[in-house]
């Protein structure tokens, strides 16, 4: 009985998140109507309020879902790299380039900063910074990285990538802006190297 109730709760939440994600990704947060996506989910406003509190709470759930999906994609990209340094470069360049995807562009890089404020202290951001700090510390120990504090560099890289993605998302020509942002970001990362990485160094050693 308890399991059935948990399944019902998960199903209701899933329907609301899916309907809201479609609306937020299509027309944006401000124009998305709670009645529209509760109707699309076959539910009531009462269900929305019960599970998410309000429209902002539901938007946060959508952001969290997209963020989790991006994290899986980025980790897969990093895992395919031939060495630890290339894993860092590939993962963070890919993050910047994700700002070209319409849904991510609108929800994460246009609306989320305005609706939710600074997300730099959220658990997912902390996890990204912690992972990057560990990678940079290992690269420093291997003698590949300049003599700088790994955590400071990780936070600066994170901030630069977020700013670059926001720049792309708000640009009248996202494609052209992405090319400039990625080229500059790549130069920024390359400037942290003391020497080129060995092709056969392990990504997760």
From TrEMBL:
SUPFAM superfamilies: Homeodomain-like (SSF46689). It comes from the Bacteria. Keywords: DNA-binding. Residues 10-70 form the HTH tetR-type domain. GO terms for molecular function: DNA-binding transcription factor activity; transcription cis-regulatory region binding. It holds the Pfam family TetR_C_41. Residues 33-52 bind DNA. Gene3D superfamilies: Tetracycline Repressor, domain 2 (1.10.357.10). This is Transcription regulator tetR family protein. It comes from Hydrogenophaga intermedia.
